[in-house]
Amino acid sequence: MRKRVNIVVLVAMFFTSLSIHAQTLNYKMASMYVYNFTKYIDWPATDRSTDFVIGVYGSTPLTAELNKSVAGKHVGYRIITVQVFKTMNEVVGCQILFVPLSESGNIKKISDLIKGKPILLVCEKEGLCKKGAGISIYLDEDDDYKTKFEMNKSSIELNGLTISQTLLHLAAQAK
Asked: CA neighbours within 13 Å on the CB side: how many for 19?
């Protein structure tokens, strides 16, 4: 009897882990999305000698992916660096700010904090563009968990950023 219970528990754990794995954002792909946003969004002219900072608020596997595949590349003449921010007051020192799922409850506060500053706010939960995020990268449960992104054009433009029409056509618009 005990052996049967152990097998049932193992099978349940296996299917639970498959379900959880299927619903986890592909952070390598997400890092490429973030990098490609730099090609289709224009920031106001700044000092060319400063780095282009992609900030991450809190802890997420995306940080390692950004450091591995994006850090050191260029946005125009500026070198991309990745910085982790632990407090909200630090986040104003970047051009792109990624807010992971674990911090998504802070989107409204962060959005209010950076309003009017040339910062692209990116998160990883569908629907957060309605709460102030500029772009949200998410898994579409209705489309075989494909990685997609939605965009809030007015939120991005409110921060002084210009979006190319190409990117607008690729995004699912937040309503």
From this structure: 6
